[in-house]
Amino acid sequence: MSSEGLRIGYVPEHFSTPIHFAQKHYGLHATLIPFPSGTGHMITAIRAGEIDIGIGLTEGWIAGLGKEGIEGDGGYRLVGTYVDTPLCWAISTGAQRPEITSVASLKGGKIGVSRIGSGSYVMGFVLADQQGWLADKTHFSDTVVLHNFENLRNAVNSGEADFFMWEHFTSKKYYDAGEIRRVGEIYTPWSSWKIVASTKLTKSGDARVKTLFEKLDRGIKHFNEHQDEAVEYISTELGYTEPDAREWLKTVKFPAHTEGVKNDVVRNCVSVLRKAGVLVEGKGLDVDAMVVKVCIAK
């Protein structure tokens, strides 16, 4: 069994705080690799063998395994739950876009996304489905791939895109600065963050995955018991204001035990994504094949 540290992909936002605590206080032996552009980029990286573990958005991981035409075994499996609460996606447009007055006015517009298959892409279809735009095929005129949050903000101001979706608190400081404008919000109808492991790890029964869960559980417990330390880290290292960090703390719940994924959560997500046209029944992996219980090799 390898004694090397796992290479863990994560999104360097406020949600990553327990990962930081797991490494700082509890000796998580890992190389933490930031992916500011999000889950879609991590899917590419884990399939390319660049990371062993990914901690990202539920809908991105599931869409990646549920699509038709995935190569080989798909490259990864869901193994753990990182956040129990839903994610609030804020819907944003440019500061000087008076023609965009509400979510309804986005129908037929250009949606900006970080990557095809990312959370920002998948949730566009969920929004269109909730708004009733999919039935007559008039949901969006174009999907503009912009790779990262900064490019998305620039695009809605230049007119390259009409709107995009990103996590609420990460977007908020740009509303406060007048750079972009909030049009609305949409919550994921599922718990928001999952942990995936490469199929190489899940097939080999690598003990480091079990150790990872133990360290993350301790990092989460520390987070829950030391909220002032969490606020200080989020506001000094991650670029959020202290009031926003405290407000976010009221909205988020991490699980006491990160190991394992409830099949019902995956089944519900797949059902919504099929209804939204992101996934097609009979294509990609079955729900039961997306989730793996980590077993340690003897």
UniProtKB/TrEMBL annotation:
Query: Which named protein is this?
Result: NMT1/THI5 like domain protein
Q: Which controlled-vocabulary keywords does the entry list?
A: Signal
Q: Where in the cell is it found?
A: Periplasm
Q: Which domain of life is it from?
A: Eukaryota
Q: Which Pfam families match?
A: PBP2_Ca3427_like
Boundaries of every Ca3427-like PBP domain copy? 89-186
User: Which organism is this entry from?
Assistant: Metarhizium robertsii
Tell me which family the UniProt entry assigns to this protein.
Answer: Belongs to the bacterial solute-binding protein SsuA/TauA family.
**Major site of localization recorded for this protein:** periplasm
Reply yes or no: does the keyword Signal apply: yes
